[in-house]
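Hey forum,

I'm writing up a methods section and want to include a predicted complex as supplementary material. The small molecule is flavin-adenine dinucleotide. I've pasted the protein sequence and the SMILES. Can someone with a working setup run it? I'll credit the forum in the acknowledgements.
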Amino acid sequence: MPADHASSAPLDADLILVGGGLANGLIAWRLALQRPDVRLLLLEAGPTLGGNHTWSFHATDLTAAQQAWIAPLVAHRWAGHEVVFPQRRRHLGGGYASVTSERFHARIAALLGERARRGVAVAALGPTQVTLADGTVLRARAVIDGRGARRSPHLVLGHQKFLGQELKLAAPHGLEAPVLMDASVAQHDGYRFVYLLPFTADTVLVEDTYYADGAALDAPALRRRIAQYAAARGWRLEGVVREEQGVLPIVLSGDPEAFWREARGVPCSGLAAGLFHPTTGYSLPEAATVAELIAARVELSAPALFESLRAHALQRWRAHGFFRLLNRMLFRSAPPQLRWKVMQRFYGLPEPLIARFYAAQLGALDKLRIVSGKPPVPLGAALRAALDRPSSRAEVRQ
Ligand SMILES: Cc1cc2nc3c(=O)[nH]c(=O)nc-3n(C[C@H](O)[C@H](O)[C@H](O)COP(=O)(O)OP(=O)(O)OC[C@H]3O[C@@H](n4cnc5c(N)ncnc54)[C@H](O)[C@@H]3O)c2cc1C
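Reply by user p_vandermeer:
Happy to help. Structure tokens for the complex are below, copy them as they are.
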């Protein structure tokens, strides 16, 4: 662990949060409300906090307490949601909600005031100090690195990649609930589905999504497919309000301890900490839990925070083993064009089990239920994929 330069100069803050994205934004929000005594500094390279995202979650992903404190950041809510497959269409009763970057920025920037600095790129960081791009050094009792996903040789990944466009339509779209997967579409590049969030009667976020082996995103092709999808539904476009895109990590296997050694003693949050749902790449519920964990800590020194976040992430890794196994079945067993069958079968399972899957809280019986019965892909290949060591590196833990 590199020692930061010793200095007798006063500290600039108790805690410096590097990156004003989802994870650090929630930490700042929670701390500022619950621990106003903690001197915070949030440094974001971009012009606004939260970048350009729509972060959605199932109501059952969060505890009642988490739902209450996140509520001011939520821009849209729905009472249920739907999925559509070639041989299955289902309405599920579970509530769904979205936090928009716009609302996230407005609320958190207003709460933090001068404690949030935007347009400030951090060039280098250690456990207790950061160096800005202009050479300024800022010091604190602890730094938290929340700069988003970092490449690591210690995680073996597939990808969920997508491009979304918020469309303004000439007439109401007729959707009553979000459609989390419309997999009735032509399959390309792995498992393809369209994700729909109806924000108002005539605006809808349409995301063309792929569970793919490769990370390359062909944006023009996805835009074309969104236009084709809208036309096939009979939607007449008045315009594209905004666009977002992402390539999210889907974990097949890895060595979490080696991943954390790369942090060199710097406490990490969010994707930088490997804290996301292994099968969806979504991180909002994990980020909410970490924000609570930090706000509840009396001791906010770098070594204490590092150990606590590392132990938490390793515990989550152990709890997520079954999801990585499912990912390997999805990515390694089914021919890419048949991956939709795995998801179609999954969505035939009881609704509470599906909710526990998204909340990453499956019990032993749930796991048995998911893998039992007639498999949607040939069993030999699926089992081999599940048991297969994912790479030749012996240290990789599944
Ligand atoms: C378009 C999109 C939609 C998504 N939708 C969902 C969803 O619906 N639900 C869900 O749970 N998850 C979703 N995710 C997945 C995941 O939750 C997000 O990627 C989430 O934003 C990750 O949080 P984070 O805090 O780790 O990183 P980020 O939110 O990406 O934040 C990192 C921040 O660090 C800043 N930064 C980077 N380098 C520096 C530097 N050197 N100095 C200063 N600042 C720096 C960046 O500008 C950025 O603002 C989505 C991801 C994307 C890309």
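Some notes you might quote in the supplement: The first strand starts at residue 13 and ends at 18. The CA atoms of residues 173 and 354 lie 27 Å apart.
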